[in-house]
Amino acid sequence: MKRILLFISFLASFVSLNAQSDNYMRQARSYQREAEYYTKQAQGYDKEVAYYNRQAQNYLREAEYYSKREKYDLVRSYQSKAKEASDKAESYKRRADNARDKARSYMRKAEKALKNAK
Fold this sequence. Notes:
The chain has two helices and no strands. By secondary structure, the chain is mostly helical. It has a domain at 52-118. Helix 1 (2-68) runs antiparallel to helix 2.
């Protein structure tokens, strides 16, 4: 009778350990999906940064063109547009950095969950 009870308690502990391991694996997969999401988001923000940097360069080129023709109103206008584009690029750069930080955080969480699953 003792052996049967011991065997049943062993099986119950094994099942609970296996269920806990599955839970950690599920959690790790969830964290990996979150990390992928934030990585893709950061890549999208990087594209925006490149776009606004190109915008700023084009506006500065226009400002230089009008400067040579002594149309200073247009120079100021294009310089202002270049500054706005540059500010937007910086804003998207910060967003991309934050998204990458979140992705790294989720990858660390996934790594811990995988270690706990073993």
